[in-house]
Design a protein that fits this description.
The structure is a single chain. The chain has 296 residues and is α/β, with parallel strands linked by helices. The protein has two domains: 212 residues, P-loop containing nucleotide triphosphate hydrolases (Rossmann fold, 3-Layer(aba) Sandwich); 59 residues, Alpha-Beta Plaits (2-Layer Sandwich). Helices cover 38% and strands 26% of the residues. The protein has eleven helices and eleven strands. Strands 3-6-7-2-8-1-9-10-11 form a nine-stranded mixed beta sheet, sandwiched between helices. Strands 4-5 form a two-stranded antiparallel sheet. It is elongated, with a radius of gyration of 23 Å.
Length: 296
């Protein structure tokens, strides 16, 4: 099973738009996974129709039995997260509660219990491109986004096996936090989308280091490559020194944004656009790289 992950060290580089373009080129030959569970937006371009949804329980929160509570204040004294609201009876601020369980242990009346918290939902959908999509939505203020990413990836693998497909195309989260680490775990090849800015280069280096530690083969697409020649040259110097595959340069083009606002991929919107032609040329190249790439 091959996993192609599209990632970026920072948001706003065009990662999701490029993923959607590759999804259009792949048609139904891949299973799609949106692992940006904190702020997923691949669905905006693919218009999925949900076929299955499941609740995601991961963390725990404290629940106070109002009848048993004597308002003694023992739980309030030990809570380091200001999650206990004094009163008759005491109550729990569910947003502030970290689920540590200390209040349950110190309550003399056994009025506090720890219960599983609904942290989000995951979905299996069909898309307008004829492909299946595994995606999720993390609840507001919920935690364990890395665990939810793992769920999405496992669902995508099961879908691929069921459909007898050997490739999963993943829209990864931006940054370098736990969801990114979870997304890169077990990946075959990572396409890093960057831009010629100071933060673009800085975050490219950080996310590449994570991919390298996971021994994931990498390639780089430089989006808006023509907006700053000096920063572009610094990115090229870095990827050349590190031996990273330079996949393509994409010019700055407002058509990219116009296509997105129309709810279309760039290739659908303007097939003869230079960005469309470039992405159409490198998608087969990425597939070949996944065939040849071994964990370094």
């Amino acid at each position: 099973m091959k996993e192609i992950v599209i990632i970026s060290g920072k948001g706003g580089t065009g990662k999701t738009s490029i993923t959607a373009a590759f999804a259009y080129l792949a048609k139904g030959s891949v299973v799609l996974a949106d692992c940006d569970v904190d702020a997923s937006d691949l669905h905006l371009l693919l218009k999925p129709e949900i076929k299955r949804s499941e609740n995601f329980y991961s963390s725990q929160v404290a629940v106070i039995d109002g009848v048993a509570c004597t308002s003694c204040g023992a739980c309030y004294d030990v809570c380091h997260f200001d999650a206990i609201i004094p009163g008759t009876p005491y109550k729990i601020d569910l947003i502030s509660c970290e689920g540590c369980g200390y209040c349950e242990k110190v309550c003399p009346e056994k009025a506090i219990t720890m219960k599983a918290n609904l942290d989000g939902q995951w979905f299996i959908s069909t898309t307008r491109l004829g492909s299946h999509l595994a995606h999720a939505r993390l609840g507001i203020g919920a935690e364990n986004s890395g665990k939810l990413v793992s769920v999405v990836k496992n669902v995508a693998k099961q879908l691929a096996q069921m459909l007898k497909l050997d490739t999963i195309l993943i829209d990864g989260p931006p940054g370098i936090s736990c969801p990114v680490i979870s997304t890169l775990s077990g990946a075959t090849f990572a396409v890093i989308v960057t831009e010629p800015t100071v933060s673009g280069l800085h975050d490219l280096k950080r996310v590449y280091e994570i991919a390298r530690r996971f021994r994931v083969g990498t390639g780089v697409i430089i989006n808006k490559a023509d907006i700053n020649k000096n920063n572009y040259n610094k990115i090229r110097e870095f990827i050349d020194i590190q031996g990273i595959k330079h996949l393509a340069d994409l010019p700055y083009d407002t058509t990219f944004t116009k296509a997105m606002t129309e709810g279309k991929t760039i290739i659908e919107y303007t097939p003869d656009n230079i960005i469309s032609r470039t992405l159409a040329n490198i998608w087969p190249q990425i597939l070949r790289l996944t065939e040849n790439t071994k964990k370094q």
